[in-house]
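User: My instructor asked us to take a sequence, write out its structure as tokens, and then describe one feature of it. I'm not sure where to start. Here is the sequence I was given:
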Amino acid sequence: MTSQNPVHTLAGQTAIVTGGASGIGRATASLFARHGAAVVVADIDGEGASKIAAEIGAAGGRAVAVTADIASEAGCRHVVQTAVDAFGGLQVLFNNAGIIRRTTALNTSCDEWDRVMAVNVRSVFLMCKYAIPVMKDGGSIVNTGSGWGLKGGGNALSYCASKAAVVNMTRALAIDHADAGIRVNSINPGDTDTPMLREEARQLMEDWTAFNASTAERPMRRKGHPDEIAQAVLFLASPAASFITGAALVVDGGGLA
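Assistant: Let's start with the prediction itself. The structure tokens for your sequence are:
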């Protein structure tokens, strides 16, 4: 299952992908495996994670699934320990799990705010807290931000705040751990064809066809595909990005421009 591209090889490395059961996480877990990594597919949806791990195995790769709520400290410890127990170490961490609530300050409950921050921000902190000590010979961390982490968006207050936190936390992590040979970058997608995008339409009570059409209002006239975001994550995780850290890579078809 290993790719033939030596620039992007992850051969001999172990990678964790949180939110790996669907969307960008699923695409990235599969791509990592095709480029030689042993993959820990982590998700609160244990059945979905197991399905992806089985698909990777059937294609000749190596993967294990772990069911975990990475908003909890115990969940994050468990995911990292699974990587160590299953594959002996850790070199790549893709903090991808996330949720969205399409609300303003006026109709966001405190519980909703706290949950978004726990899944989107606290999990990144906790996964890094437990993963970095395991990366004894250096490694790469990629955090999923968003175009809305770099500019504002409507009806998504908690999400915008959480993703801005991820982008700047990424920079701080990059500074703190460069001496250990650990690179930390963020990937910042625009609208991408994932289950989360459909969930946004549901929350806004908008017709999917109309909502979907509105996502094409960017220079490239279309939304992104999970595989396209995964390619950018692979680049940041791989030796091809060996001198890149603290960066916020935008992958949005020109929307932010």
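For the description part of your assignment, you could build on this observation: The first helix runs from residue 23 to 34. Try explaining in your own words what that tells you about the chain.
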